[in-house]
Specification:
This protein is of the alpha/beta class. It has 2 domains: 203 residues, Quinone Oxidoreductase, Chain A, domain 1, CATH 3.90.180; 136 residues, Rossmann fold. Helix content is 30%, strand content 25%. It has 12 helices and 18 strands. Strands 3, 5, 6, 9, 10, 17 and 18 form a 7-stranded mixed β-sheet that branches. A 6-stranded parallel β-sheet has the order 13-12-11-14-15-16, with helices on both faces. Helix 9 links the parallel strand 14 and strand 15. Helix 5 packs across helix 6, helix 6 runs parallel beside helix 7 and helix 8 packs parallel to helix 9. The protein is globular. The chain starts with a strand and ends with a strand.
């Protein structure tokens, strides 16, 4: 079968790799019908995140179950399933707490020893604790299938940021970052009942989506100017709930500066960079809570799935370009050059 493989920074290739097979009785094999490129994938592509040459890549996908291990009870051959970006057994203490990303038997797609999500098929360990079945008819509804794909990562991650920041009925929320996760953070905050949502972003095409998703205000400035703009919108107090969806020193500094005293920041941007970016004494003295981390999207899927199926929320606009499997290298290049927000991969 064919799959995306990373050999060096800016060197993604689609190559022939071994077909996945059942190794454990709790495994399934999923034939991928839709996947995508994540902003997190770009850190390996840029050479910021470490990887071994020849490593598989990708972690967001939907597919049809092609084979099942003897102990699998939760799905059958032919089922359409969404697969979270971390597999989990659903049984350990962390899973019981809802922290599936810390599962004792879990792991991330695209790491050594696992398949990547940007390929024709994937072996899924711990299937019963990982995959969620979807209506089979969704395969023929391209918009719905695309919306459902976001449940594998970005929608659940945006929801995690909104929930950890304290978004709720009548709240004011600011979202730092206009990537797919930030936009899904806007959508999640709106779904949770936020009354005012301030989106920080510089790209008109993206902030237009943010407004569609529920943003009431857009701040296009950066740095000190962005902080001043947000504080002007909030009578100088700052925002009680902030979603940080980028992961750079600059974005975290901005999140801290626009938070009001006693506020909360939901951090879901994958950190990259080794400096401090801001003074923790400021966080301490102003009683700002830093929450978030790797989003346990498997825990959130049962809550979010009905609203996606019913059309209450539609995250599909975060995908603004589509490629086939052979076009994956071009998809990475487009996202790196910011000519694409999020690239869909058709099979």
């Amino acid at each position: 079968m064919r799959a995306a493989v990373i050999h060096a920074p800016h060197d993604i290739r689609v190559e022939e790799v071994a077909d996945p097979v059942i190794r454990q009785p709790t495994d399934i094999v999923v034939r991928v019908v839709l996947s995508c490129v994540c902003g997190t994938d770009l850190w390996a592509y840029r050479g910021v995140a470490e990887f071994d040459p020849g490593q598989r890549i990708g972690h967001e996908f939907i597919g049809v179950v092609e084979d099942i291990g003897a102990d699998v009870m939760g799905c059958s051959v032919g089922d359409l399933v969404v697969v979270p970006f971390v597999w989990s057994d659903g049984e350990c203490g962390y899973c019981a707490e809802g922290l599936t990303t810390s599962c004792e038997q879990g792991g991330f797609w695209g790491t050594n020893g696992s398949d990547g999500g940007q390929g024709e098929a994937v072996r899924v360990p711990c299937a019963d604790g990982t995959v969620v079945r979807l209506p089979k008819e969704a395969v023929s509804d391209r918009r719905l299938l695309t919306a459902l794909l976001t449940l594998s990562d970005v929608l659940g991650t945006g929801h995690h940021g909104a929930a950890r920041a304290g978004a709720g009925t009548g709240t004011t929320v600011a979202v730092v970052g206009d990537g797919a996760v930030g936009l899904c953070g806007v959508l999640a905050a709106k779904r949770l009942g936020a009354e005012r949502i301030i989106a920080l972003g510089r790209h008109r095409s993206r902030t237009d989506i943010a407004r569609t998703f529920g943003a009431t205000d857009v701040v296009t400035e950066r740095g000190e100017a962005a902080v001043e703009a947000v504080r002007e919108l909030t009578r100088g107090r700052g925002v009680p709930a902030v979603i940080e969806a980028v992961g750079t020193e600059q974005s975290m500094w901005t999140a801290v500066q626009i938070a009001r005293d006693g506020g909360s920041i939901g951090c879901v941007g994958v950190p990259h960079g080794s400096g401090t970016g801001f003074d923790l004494s400021d966080v301490f003295e102003r009683n700002i809570a830093l929450r978030g981390g790797v989003a346990p999207v498997r825990t959130y899927i049962p809550e979010l799935l009905p609203d996606v199926l019913d059309g209450v929320i539609d995250p599909s606009p975060v995908f603004d370009r589509a490629v086939d499997l052979a076009g994956i290298p071009d998809g990475y290049k487009a996202m790196e050059e910011r000519t694409a927000l999020k690239v869909l991969i058709n099979y």
